[in-house]
Amino acid sequence: MIKQNSKTSFSLRKLTIIGVLGAISAILGMTPIGFIPVGPTNATIMHIPVIIGAILEGPVVGAMVGVIFGIFSIIRSITAPTVISPVFYNPLVSILPRVLIGITSYYTFITLKKAGKRLSTIVVTLVWSGVIVYLIRNFVIQLNSYNTNEIGLWQLVFSGLLIIITLLIGYFSYKKFKEQSIEVVLSAVVGTLTNTVGVLGMIYLLYGKWFVEKTGGNPEMVGKTILGVAIANGIPEAIVGMLIVTSVVIGIKRTDKR
């Protein structure tokens, strides 16, 4: 009887977390809150609840939150349509990649925990270094644009603050939570790239030429155009994902230990 109650409680916990994170993902997807300006592009954070659910509760929870995320992508494409909305009516574009986010995030987390601290530290150092270089390069570009009055002061300030926040979170997360933050950071990166590559990859396979034409690109350069979109969106989203997921997951794990 005790085991049965324990199992029921465990299942209820998972269902509750799926509901809460799914609701957060839906709110992010249906409102402007789900988009953060990072340099010249907007980074979506709608996939972040999926990654958090996978790291904290496993691949099943992550996958289920991903399903909810995908369903609301379809709903948003119907209720707030754009020229490219029809591609998201297809579950292979809107749902499948979002389910995979939870799976890849979780197994990245587990694999790195087993790989050992030294290898994980090297990998995460390279990732963080790449992020800082990207942000500094973007800041320099924006500084030049500000000098020629092409962008506003708030955009320049935001880019500068993002560099500072990235450095601080990277330092404190490693300093205080060495053995946990490394796996979390890289899981966030992998989960984010799964979303970007998965969605754009399916669009390339199923709607490539049509998608490029609708976005005003050259239909003879489908691969290069979609790759450009992936880089422009994927890097900022990975940066924002690393910052938010690391902060939330480590904060929750620290609270659980008390």
TrEMBL record:
Please indicate which superkingdom the organism of origin belongs to. Answer: Bacteria
Q: Which protein is depicted? A: Putative membrane protein
Query: Where do transmembrane segments lie in this chain?
Result: 15-38, 50-75, 87-107, 119-140, 152-172, 184-207, 227-252
The Swiss-Prot or TrEMBL record annotates one GO molecular function as:
transmembrane transporter activity
Keyword terms? Membrane, Transmembrane, Transmembrane helix
Q: Which InterPro entries match?
A: ECF_trnsprt_substrate-spec
